[in-house]
Specification:
This protein is of the alpha/beta class and about 260 residues long. The chain has helices spanning about 15-25, 40-45, 60-70, 105-115, 130-135, 145-150, 190-205, 210-220, 225-235, 245-255, and strands at about 10, 30-35, 50-55, 75-80, 95-100, 120-130, 155-165, 170, 175-185. The protein has two domains: about 5-185, Vaccinia Virus protein VP39 (Rossmann fold, 3-Layer(aba) Sandwich), CATH 3.40.50; about 190-255, Helicase, Ruva Protein, domain 3. The protein contains ten helices and nine strands. It is elongated and about 70 Å long. The protein binds S-adenosylmethionine (SAM).
Amino acid sequence: MGARLGQHFLRDESVRDAVVGFAHARPGDLVLEIGPGRGALTGRLLAAGAAVTAVELDEVIAGKLPGMVGDAAANLQTINEDFLRLDLREFGPGPWLIVGNLPYAVGTPILQKLLTWNGWTRAVLMFQKEVGERIVAGPGGADYGLLSLSVRARADAELALEVPRAAFIPPPNVDSAVVVLTRRAAPRLPAAEEKAFWRLTKIAFTQRRKMAAGVLAKALGRPRAEVDAAFSAAGLEVSARPEEIPFDAWRALARALCS
Ligand code: SAM
């Protein structure tokens, strides 16, 4: 049960303080906490004066949570549900601050779900360290890929803190990292461009070691000269590999090749 639910509880007080500090919660703020567990972060968020809605999948833990935060429970609402099954529109316009020390197995799907919702402004989320590095990666390295692009389309992300496995009880087999996301009021990727952008990037990143122009020409049935011209117009070398192509250049390529 513990492994499936990713139940590694934060025991390090300084890391608890740091995670809550990154949220900048102030009195009256609405905080949506994902996976509160035994309240390591919940108590601090309530102490900052926030109204906390906590979504916890484990029924036993969810039932005990109000008793763990004392008088502050008046500002706590606990929802015993799988976050991935919630209809986030029911949370209203917020704006919400999101906080979560996420279970490793579902950290990425939870992030993807959050990215499609515009009810939040800032999110402080703990991931497996390697996932955190992929989320914040820019072009030029092996960490950069579809996950980095999907985050960049809607938010700014920074890796705020690396957290060693010893900070948790029981300790997991991997290290962790706290990522702070700020949702952009206007996405970098307009809705009208989404389909073409993701079609193109998914094709290219399935063969990330190959030159993107060749892969795209073949998959799209376009003459290589046309694809090369689109690369040059986007400011790219025709030999560029997917991991070298910045977000805005992907947009330019999608407009040129998929419209
Ligand atoms: N926030 C606590 C802490 O820092 O000590 C607990 C973090 S623990 C890594 C993850 C928590 O998420 C567990 O309490 C687990 O039961 C809960 N959880 C796992 N999957 C979930 C899901 N799909 N929706 C909501 N909560 C989930």
